[in-house]
Design a protein that fits this description.
9 helices; globular; seven-stranded mixed β-sheet; Glycerol-3-phosphate (1)-acyltransferase; disordered N terminus; alpha/beta; 32% helix; single chain
Protein backbone atom coordinates (compact mmCIF):
# COMPACT_ATOMS: atom_id res chain seq x y z
CA UNK A 1 0.00 0.00 0.00
CA UNK A 2 1.28 3.46 -0.85
CA UNK A 3 1.28 5.93 2.04
CA UNK A 4 2.11 9.15 0.18
CA UNK A 5 1.35 11.12 -2.92
CA UNK A 6 3.09 13.10 -5.59
CA UNK A 7 1.48 16.50 -5.99
CA UNK A 8 2.82 19.30 -8.12
CA UNK A 9 1.51 22.77 -7.31
CA UNK A 10 2.43 25.32 -9.94
CA UNK A 11 2.10 29.10 -9.88
CA UNK A 12 -0.98 29.10 -12.11
CA UNK A 13 -4.46 29.80 -10.83
CA UNK A 14 -3.51 31.47 -7.57
CA UNK A 15 -6.15 34.19 -7.52
CA UNK A 16 -7.94 34.85 -4.25
CA UNK A 17 -10.60 32.26 -3.53
CA UNK A 18 -14.15 33.40 -2.75
CA UNK A 19 -15.00 32.90 0.92
CA UNK A 20 -18.55 31.56 0.90
CA UNK A 21 -20.34 28.68 2.52
CA UNK A 22 -20.49 25.44 0.60
CA UNK A 23 -22.70 22.45 1.32
CA UNK A 24 -21.08 19.03 1.36
CA UNK A 25 -18.14 18.28 -0.91
CA UNK A 26 -19.73 18.80 -4.30
CA UNK A 27 -18.21 22.21 -4.97
CA UNK A 28 -19.08 22.61 -8.62
CA UNK A 29 -19.17 20.26 -11.55
CA UNK A 30 -19.38 16.58 -10.56
CA UNK A 31 -16.00 15.98 -12.22
CA UNK A 32 -12.71 17.81 -12.04
CA UNK A 33 -10.65 18.78 -15.09
CA UNK A 34 -10.08 15.91 -17.49
CA UNK A 35 -12.50 13.63 -15.66
CA UNK A 36 -10.96 13.68 -12.19
CA UNK A 37 -13.56 13.06 -9.44
CA UNK A 38 -14.28 15.97 -7.13
CA UNK A 39 -15.26 14.04 -3.98
CA UNK A 40 -12.63 13.40 -1.33
CA UNK A 41 -11.99 10.02 0.23
CA UNK A 42 -13.35 9.76 3.75
CA UNK A 43 -12.29 6.48 5.32
CA UNK A 44 -14.61 4.70 7.71
CA UNK A 45 -13.95 4.93 11.44
CA UNK A 46 -13.09 1.23 11.52
CA UNK A 47 -10.74 1.51 8.54
CA UNK A 48 -8.92 4.50 10.03
CA UNK A 49 -8.56 2.70 13.37
CA UNK A 50 -7.19 -0.43 11.66
CA UNK A 51 -4.61 1.59 9.73
CA UNK A 52 -3.64 3.50 12.86
CA UNK A 53 -3.11 0.23 14.77
CA UNK A 54 -0.99 -1.17 11.94
CA UNK A 55 1.18 1.97 11.79
CA UNK A 56 1.56 1.98 15.56
CA UNK A 57 2.98 -1.53 15.46
CA UNK A 58 5.07 -0.83 12.36
CA UNK A 59 6.77 2.22 13.87
CA UNK A 60 7.20 0.60 17.27
CA UNK A 61 8.78 -2.67 16.20
CA UNK A 62 9.98 -2.52 12.59
CA UNK A 63 10.99 1.10 11.97
CA UNK A 64 11.40 2.81 15.34
CA UNK A 65 9.88 6.28 15.33
CA UNK A 66 11.24 9.21 17.36
CA UNK A 67 9.15 12.37 17.69
CA UNK A 68 10.55 15.77 18.72
CA UNK A 69 8.34 18.80 19.35
CA UNK A 70 4.93 17.10 19.36
CA UNK A 71 3.92 19.70 21.97
CA UNK A 72 4.18 22.33 19.23
CA UNK A 73 1.05 20.97 17.55
CA UNK A 74 -1.80 23.41 18.31
CA UNK A 75 -5.43 22.58 18.88
CA UNK A 76 -7.19 21.51 15.66
CA UNK A 77 -7.61 22.54 12.98
CA UNK A 78 -4.07 22.93 11.65
CA UNK A 79 -1.89 22.06 8.65
CA UNK A 80 1.35 20.07 8.78
CA UNK A 81 3.83 21.06 6.05
CA UNK A 82 6.70 18.62 5.66
CA UNK A 83 9.50 17.52 3.39
CA UNK A 84 8.66 14.53 1.19
CA UNK A 85 11.09 11.70 0.39
CA UNK A 86 9.08 8.48 0.68
CA UNK A 87 5.70 6.84 0.33
CA UNK A 88 5.70 6.23 4.09
CA UNK A 89 5.83 9.95 4.92
CA UNK A 90 2.08 10.33 5.49
CA UNK A 91 1.96 7.32 7.81
CA UNK A 92 4.97 8.71 9.70
CA UNK A 93 3.37 12.13 10.17
CA UNK A 94 -0.03 10.78 11.17
CA UNK A 95 1.56 8.48 13.75
CA UNK A 96 3.89 11.20 15.05
CA UNK A 97 1.02 13.68 15.48
CA UNK A 98 -0.67 11.54 18.12
CA UNK A 99 -4.07 12.45 16.64
CA UNK A 100 -6.64 9.89 15.47
CA UNK A 101 -6.09 9.05 11.82
CA UNK A 102 -9.75 9.83 11.16
CA UNK A 103 -9.00 13.51 11.88
CA UNK A 104 -6.16 13.77 9.33
CA UNK A 105 -6.35 14.17 5.55
CA UNK A 106 -3.64 14.58 2.96
CA UNK A 107 -3.76 16.46 -0.30
CA UNK A 108 -3.32 13.73 -2.90
CA UNK A 109 -2.71 13.88 -6.64
CA UNK A 110 -5.94 13.22 -8.52
CA UNK A 111 -4.29 11.08 -11.16
CA UNK A 112 -2.52 8.97 -8.51
CA UNK A 113 -5.31 8.33 -6.00
CA UNK A 114 -8.47 8.79 -8.05
CA UNK A 115 -7.88 7.58 -11.61
CA UNK A 116 -7.08 3.97 -10.73
CA UNK A 117 -10.05 2.07 -9.29
CA UNK A 118 -7.67 -0.30 -7.49
CA UNK A 119 -5.89 2.52 -5.68
CA UNK A 120 -9.17 4.28 -5.05
CA UNK A 121 -10.73 1.14 -3.57
CA UNK A 122 -7.77 0.34 -1.29
CA UNK A 123 -6.79 3.81 -0.06
CA UNK A 124 -10.35 5.02 0.56
CA UNK A 125 -10.82 2.24 3.13
CA UNK A 126 -8.03 3.54 5.36
CA UNK A 127 -7.12 7.19 4.63
CA UNK A 128 -8.77 10.56 4.07
CA UNK A 129 -7.54 12.12 0.82
CA UNK A 130 -8.48 15.44 -0.75
CA UNK A 131 -7.89 15.48 -4.53
CA UNK A 132 -5.69 18.10 -6.14
CA UNK A 133 -4.74 18.47 -9.79
CA UNK A 134 -1.00 18.20 -10.43
CA UNK A 135 -1.26 21.01 -12.98
CA UNK A 136 -2.94 23.27 -10.41
CA UNK A 137 -5.45 24.85 -12.78
CA UNK A 138 -7.59 27.59 -11.26
CA UNK A 139 -10.92 25.72 -11.18
CA UNK A 140 -9.32 22.60 -9.73
CA UNK A 141 -7.58 24.61 -7.00
CA UNK A 142 -10.86 26.32 -6.12
CA UNK A 143 -12.52 22.97 -5.57
CA UNK A 144 -9.57 21.56 -3.63
CA UNK A 145 -9.45 24.64 -1.41
CA UNK A 146 -13.19 24.42 -0.73
CA UNK A 147 -12.86 20.78 0.33
CA UNK A 148 -9.92 21.66 2.58
CA UNK A 149 -12.00 24.37 4.28
CA UNK A 150 -14.83 21.90 4.75
CA UNK A 151 -12.56 19.30 6.35
CA UNK A 152 -10.74 21.82 8.55
CA UNK A 153 -13.54 24.02 9.78
CA UNK A 154 -16.66 21.86 9.76
CA UNK A 155 -15.07 18.54 10.67
CA UNK A 156 -12.31 20.07 12.82
CA UNK A 157 -9.76 17.97 10.97
CA UNK A 158 -6.13 18.60 10.08
CA UNK A 159 -4.27 18.53 6.77
CA UNK A 160 -0.93 17.15 5.60
CA UNK A 161 0.71 19.08 2.76
CA UNK A 162 4.00 18.44 0.95
CA UNK A 163 5.28 21.78 -0.39
CA UNK A 164 7.94 20.14 -2.60
CA UNK A 165 5.12 18.64 -4.63
CA UNK A 166 6.74 15.25 -5.16
CA UNK A 167 9.08 12.82 -3.45
CA UNK A 168 12.74 13.76 -3.52
CA UNK A 169 14.72 11.23 -5.58
CA UNK A 170 17.86 11.56 -3.44
CA UNK A 171 16.46 12.45 -0.01
CA UNK A 172 17.50 16.10 -0.25
CA UNK A 173 14.93 18.86 0.05
CA UNK A 174 13.77 20.37 -3.22
CA UNK A 175 12.56 23.91 -3.86
CA UNK A 176 9.03 24.44 -2.59
CA UNK A 177 6.21 24.96 -5.08
CA UNK A 178 4.66 28.41 -4.96
CA UNK A 179 1.14 26.98 -4.96
CA UNK A 180 1.72 25.93 -1.35
CA UNK A 181 1.13 29.53 -0.30
CA UNK A 182 -2.48 29.36 -1.44
CA UNK A 183 -3.28 26.75 1.20
CA UNK A 184 -0.98 28.17 3.89
CA UNK A 185 -2.47 31.67 3.74
CA UNK A 186 -6.03 31.29 2.50
CA UNK A 187 -7.16 28.46 4.80
CA UNK A 188 -6.62 30.62 7.89
CA UNK A 189 -5.35 27.97 10.33
CA UNK A 190 -1.95 27.46 12.01
CA UNK A 191 0.69 25.85 9.80
CA UNK A 192 3.18 23.54 11.51
CA UNK A 193 6.55 23.04 9.74
CA UNK A 194 7.86 19.50 10.08
CA UNK A 195 10.91 17.56 8.94
CA UNK A 196 11.12 13.79 8.50
CA UNK A 197 14.55 12.22 8.82
CA UNK A 198 15.20 8.63 7.71
CA UNK A 199 12.13 7.86 5.57
CA UNK A 200 14.19 7.93 2.39
CA UNK A 201 16.45 5.20 3.82
CA UNK A 202 13.43 3.07 4.69
CA UNK A 203 11.62 3.35 1.36
CA UNK A 204 13.26 5.50 -1.30
CA UNK A 205 11.50 6.52 -4.50
CA UNK A 206 11.32 3.52 -6.81
CA UNK A 207 11.62 0.97 -3.99
CA UNK A 208 8.81 -1.33 -2.87
CA UNK A 209 10.07 -3.15 0.24
CA UNK A 210 10.61 -1.03 3.38
CA UNK A 211 13.88 -1.53 5.25
CA UNK A 212 13.97 -1.81 9.07
CA UNK A 213 15.62 1.55 9.76
CA UNK A 214 14.81 4.29 12.33
CA UNK A 215 12.84 7.40 11.41
CA UNK A 216 12.38 10.72 13.23
CA UNK A 217 9.94 13.61 12.96
CA UNK A 218 10.75 17.13 14.20
CA UNK A 219 7.80 19.53 14.56
CA UNK A 220 8.52 23.24 14.64
CA UNK A 221 6.59 26.17 16.09
CA UNK A 222 3.20 26.71 14.40
CA UNK A 223 2.81 29.77 12.20
CA UNK A 224 -0.44 31.68 11.76
CA UNK A 225 -0.36 33.66 8.53
CA UNK A 226 -2.47 36.80 8.89
CA UNK A 227 -3.21 38.42 5.55
CA UNK A 228 -6.51 40.27 5.84
CA UNK A 229 -4.95 43.37 7.35
CA UNK A 230 -2.55 43.50 4.37
CA UNK A 231 -5.19 43.36 1.65
CA UNK A 232 -3.46 46.16 -0.25
CA UNK A 233 -0.57 43.84 -1.08
CA UNK A 234 -0.52 41.46 -4.03
CA UNK A 235 -2.14 38.13 -3.20
CA UNK A 236 0.58 36.26 -5.00
CA UNK A 237 3.24 38.25 -3.13
CA UNK A 238 1.73 37.27 0.22
CA UNK A 239 1.64 33.61 -0.70
CA UNK A 240 5.16 33.62 -2.09
CA UNK A 241 6.43 35.15 1.15
CA UNK A 242 4.64 32.45 3.13
CA UNK A 243 6.29 29.73 1.03
CA UNK A 244 9.72 31.27 1.58
CA UNK A 245 9.21 31.31 5.34
CA UNK A 246 7.99 27.70 5.43
CA UNK A 247 10.97 26.53 3.40
CA UNK A 248 13.34 28.38 5.73
CA UNK A 249 11.72 26.87 8.82
CA UNK A 250 11.77 23.30 7.50
CA UNK A 251 15.37 23.63 6.36
CA UNK A 252 16.20 24.87 9.85
CA UNK A 253 14.54 21.77 11.32
CA UNK A 254 16.59 19.62 8.95
CA UNK A 255 19.83 21.25 10.12
CA UNK A 256 18.79 20.93 13.75
CA UNK A 257 17.89 17.25 13.37
CA UNK A 258 21.57 16.34 13.62
CA UNK A 259 21.69 17.63 17.21
CA UNK A 260 18.99 15.14 18.30
CA UNK A 261 17.58 17.75 20.66
CA UNK A 262 14.57 20.02 20.90
CA UNK A 263 14.74 22.29 17.88
CA UNK A 264 14.24 25.99 18.48
CA UNK A 265 15.16 28.96 16.39
CA UNK A 266 17.17 31.67 18.20
CA UNK A 267 14.47 34.16 17.23
CA UNK A 268 11.72 32.09 18.90
CA UNK A 269 12.60 32.34 22.59
CA UNK A 270 9.19 33.58 23.76
CA UNK A 271 6.79 32.05 21.26
CA UNK A 272 3.48 30.98 22.70
CA UNK A 273 0.79 28.73 21.35
CA UNK A 274 1.39 30.03 17.87
CA UNK A 275 3.07 33.00 16.25
CA UNK A 276 1.24 35.50 14.09
CA UNK A 277 3.56 36.36 11.23
CA UNK A 278 3.26 39.70 9.47
CA UNK A 279 3.15 38.82 5.80
CA UNK A 280 3.82 42.47 5.02
CA UNK A 281 7.16 42.18 6.78
CA UNK A 282 7.98 38.95 5.00
CA UNK A 283 7.15 40.33 1.61
CA UNK A 284 9.36 43.36 2.05
CA UNK A 285 12.03 41.80 4.29
CA UNK A 286 12.34 45.21 5.89
CA UNK A 287 11.12 44.54 9.41
CA UNK A 288 10.37 41.61 11.67
CA UNK A 289 7.02 41.84 13.45
CA UNK A 290 5.64 38.95 15.48
CA UNK A 291 2.94 38.96 18.12
CA UNK A 292 2.65 36.13 20.59
CA UNK A 293 -0.14 35.01 22.85
CA UNK A 294 -1.21 32.17 25.10
CA UNK A 295 1.03 29.95 27.18
CA UNK A 296 4.62 29.23 26.28
CA UNK A 297 5.43 25.93 24.58
CA UNK A 298 8.13 24.03 26.35
Amino acid sequence: MSFGAQVTLSDSGLQAMPDRERQGYDTGDPMMDRGKPVEMFLASTVGSAMFQAFCGAFFSHYCRLTVVGQNHLPRPPFIICSNHTSHIDSAVLMTASGHPFSTLALLGASDYFFDSWRTRFLVSRFMNVIPIDRHARHNSLRRSLAMCKEFLHKRHGNLILYPEGTRSPDGQMQTFKRGTGLFAVDLGVPVVPAHIEGAHTILAKGKFMPRPEPVAVHFGEPIMFESRQFAHLSGRGLRNAAVELLEERIRFLRRGAATRGVIRSPEEFEIGEHATISISALAHRGRNTKSHGGRESE
